[in-house]
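Homework help thread (please don't just give me the answer)

Our assignment gives two proteins as sequence + structure token strings and asks us to describe the second one. The first is just a warm-up. Here they are:
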Amino acid sequence: MAANLDTLVEELSKLSVLEAAELVKKLEEKWGVSAAAPVAVAAVAGAAPAAAAAEPVEEKTEFDVIIKDAGPKKIETIKVIRQLTSLGLGEAKALAETAGGKVLSAVGKDAAMDAKKKLEEAGAVVEVV
């Protein structure tokens, strides 16, 4: 059977474009199918991933400044926390001693990076998320 298929492929390769188009029409009529439908489906399916990839990635605009460790100079860290927030001494001390505590919440990128810089200069280990 493979030899018959090879012969058929050779014969079909000899057809001109007009003859190939006529063959397609005859096969569509004979079998009751349309050769255009799979092409249209493939084009639509191929366009869907491209459309999904074209969606803009939403850039994060709000950040949290989280203290991981007050560091060796806890008093300096507490002072910076008080400068950045409106917390009293006791609240700032408790926050400095709480790993994972939010110093600032939902602030802009510049404010978050500035706070991180100040806290790190005081010796704290800080994460911006």
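The one we have to describe:
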Amino acid sequence: MSDTNNNENWLYIIRNFLKPSRTIPITSWRAESTWGLTNGNQSLQRFLLLIFGLTVFGIGEAFLVVTSLGNSPWVVLSEGISLNSNLNIGQATFFVSLVVLFFWIPLRQKPGFGTLANIVVIAVAIELGLLIIPEVENISLKLFYVLFGILLVGIGSALYITCGLGTGPRDGLMTGLHYRTGVRVGRVRLGIEVLALTTGALLGGSLGVGTALFALFIGQSVAISLGVLGRLTSK
């Protein structure tokens, strides 16, 4: 009986620890402004967490690319735009970022240092990931790569968002809609990803099971990661 009770207690602790956050937690390293790279040691900690979070995010994206099972919805969208224009995928991605930034205006979102770092560090991290992540042929390993990549993207998102130095264009849209509507972070992110995926597919972008899994689980991955961070840093 005692073993059963202990197991139930552990399950309860784990469920509570992994409970998704309904909002963006306030952490000790959060900047007072989106360009707040001051205050000595705290500034260095914030900068390192930002770069680490963006790196984890980019490597997570690379795990999906390596599988060839389908990329994240935004890459599907960029590919769809490139197929219907003179833009390549890189240029289409830049175009999408500008359009998304335009939607920041009514949401009163402002870019910051993290917004610029997002564009550079994630791109470098993706290339690094493609260089060091071994390719696999086994479908079970590929699915593990996809799920692990989604986990990393969620963790990376939570880390750099809580730095308060400005989100990337897509995450800024997510947090802006969350603050303006009060809808849970995970649900907002899911809605955005599904919209990008649907539009990209209609434009002819390629997608697969990896794309579908990303769209379905990225919201919860971000929300759970935010919840864990909030509990680990709460006083």
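TA reply:
I won't write it for you, but here's a hint about the kind of observation we're looking for: The two ends are 35 Å apart (CA to CA).
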